[in-house]
Amino acid sequence: METAILNQQDKIPVSEAMRDMIREVVEVCWRVMGRQGTPEVSIVLCDNQQIRELNRDYRGKDEPTDVLSFPQEELGAGEDALPPMPALPDVPVVLGDVVISLERAREQAEAYGHSFEREVGYLLTHGLLHLLGFDHNSEEERSRMREKEEEILAEVNLIR
């Protein structure tokens, strides 16, 4: 598994424990989703200004958000999720990038009354599921995605 963690902000310290948690979430998400091969993903940790610029440039929304996902391969209309990968454990599978605003994660953790680590883990899980083809445009999709998020977070002990 290759998880590149790029800390592009200096407002919130990123400990080695946080980096370990990020790697664990990626590993558990991959396993829970039943994927084969070796996942490669980049996790970019930024501040509100950086994610605002990305949100403006790529989604046309000139406001900060909490997480953005940039899949390596886009899904076509009507495609539910990426098909299972070949059963070759050493084949790299490049997923894409997940960008998380640590400032927004801290704000949301305080607002929701849970830990900063739980919020970062949730945002990462949410972003990873987007890379794996999940979305939340309908109530059914939202429910399916939420169920997977909670399953993954429970497995890494990041409960509310």
Please outline what is shown here:
The protein is α/β, with parallel strands linked by helices.
Folded structure, characterized:
The protein has 160 residues and is α/β, with parallel strands linked by helices. It has one domain (2-155): Metalloproteases ("zincins"), catalytic domain (Collagenase (Catalytic Domain)), CATH 3.40.390.30. It is built from five helices and four strands, in the order βαβαββααα. Strands 1-2-4-3 form a four-stranded mixed sheet, with helices on both faces. Helix 1 links the parallel strand 1 (2-7) and strand 2. Helix 1 runs parallel beside helix 4, helix 1 (16-32) crosses helix 5 (139-155) and helix 3 packs across helix 4. The protein is globular, with a radius of gyration of 15 Å. The model is unreliable at 77-83 (pLDDT under 50).
Question: Count of helices?
Answer: 5
Would you tell me the structural class of the helices and strands? alpha/beta
Helix percent band: 40-55%
What separation lies between the terminal Cα atoms?
A: 27 Å
Shape designation: globular
In angstroms, what is the radius of gyration? 15 Å
Mean pLDDT: 90
Succession of helices and strands:
EHEHEEHHH
Which spans have pLDDT < 50 for at least 5 consecutive residues?
Answer: 77-83
Percentage of β-strand residues: 15-25%
Number of domains: 1
Question: Mind summarizing the main beta sheet?
Answer: 4 strands, mixed
Assigned CATH architecture: 3-Layer(aba) Sandwich
Which topology does CATH recognise?
Collagenase (Catalytic Domain)
- The total strand number stands at 4
Strand line-up across the major sheet? 1-2-4-3
